[in-house]
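chain below, 134 aa
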Amino acid sequence: MSTKIFVNLPVKDLAKSIAFFSRLGYTVNSRFTDDNAGCLVISDSIFAMLLTESSFKAFTEMEIPDTATSAQAILALGLDSRAEVDELVAKAVAAGATEPRGATDEGFLYGRSFADLDGHLWEAFWMDPAALPD
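prediction:
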């Protein structure tokens, strides 16, 4: 069984968020995009639904966390190489993201992070399973 994941993220400015992620090389599925939501295609089975805050609130009665002071999740993207990790984070920062902490390098695991325009945390990482310690 193949499972797809659709992560729903509230955004303050849908057009700016779509432009940001487009600069990172991701595409938007226009069939599931309108004035209230943008369907960001991360891979064949991973999508992020960028929802205006009012649309996001239709799914929950809970408050949207203030990303300046709290984190609800860290979205981790496994990439094929260390170079891809560096490239993605460099594109994100050039497009307006911040890098909340420096790179981590454990030999078999390399990662960097960025906070997108709305403060959502993303972790880009590469791992060499053959080099995992016992």
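The chain has two domains: 1-59, 72-134. Strands lie at 5-11, 27-29, 37-41, 46-52, 74-78, 104-105, 109-115, 121-127.
thats it, cya
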